[in-house]
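Case study 2.
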Amino acid sequence: MKSDIELLIQHDNKIYAPVVQEDIIWSTERKGTPGMLEFKIIYDLDFNVSEGDAVRFRVNNCNIFYGFIFKLEHDKNRIISLTAYDQLRYLKNKDTYVYENKTASELIKMIADDFKLQCGNIDDTNFKIESRIESNISLFDMIQNALDITLQNKKQLYVLYDDFGKLTLKSLDNTRVNFLINENSAENYNYSSSIDSETYNKVKLTYDNEKTGLRDVYIAKDSHNINKWGVLQYFEVLNDNINGKSKADALLKLYNTKTQKLTVKNILGDNNIRAGSIIVVFMDLGSIKVKNMMLVEKCKHKYRESEHLMDLTLRGGESIA
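Prediction:
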């Protein structure tokens, strides 16, 4: 089935629709990386293209990508290879922030305002971070630190992405896509499960209490999984003593499970799927049956005139931080 593909480049006040060669690749990752669009065009004397030009990409009247050209490569065949990033690219800027009593949502809006970034729907993360000093780190890291603190205290994961030129923050509950993967869906796949990283069945938090002169200790553990796997301990020194027991319980609930990873190659594409989406996986692998929701960690869409395929890296289990 032929796709209606529209790719436009704006240079100064002019908008061009270049002749695109080969595939158009749209890639996203769940955290710390901007969305990226890669494509090749034929050099044409009738239009100019340069770094900073805006790129708009739509398929079958569906908004896919809006961003800006950051890289151009020319070859002897007069083909120009271009790489564009969405707004998240500007979160790679470094700075220093000191803030108090803000949610991660409020931090994102503050940074967006300071750096003149456009915001769309920002879910309320509903957890006030008492105080934080972020010194000489990327804006990506500042925001991720706030989201990690929220996750550890509220056991709620949020996904930050650019939605066609608008910074968007959604809770994981709002990222589900009606899409099923089974063992016949992909050209190839690889599945693994592990307790080797980000799996903990005992959580130990300590806080040096200046008022009492004692060290407060908070422990949460799962004796069943300790007998099954041995002791896998998460340890952290707290900077404040707010809800230490609740945080230990939340961390145990978050990390007390094995992790599952699945990669699939050349699966039929769906424009609604991006890094951060939740989809259904139902695979009969012989010795094991996988039937659960999984989180898309990485997503690569490959568009050509009559075909749309995806490569996905997914993660399952509770430990998806």
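The radius of gyration is 23 Å.
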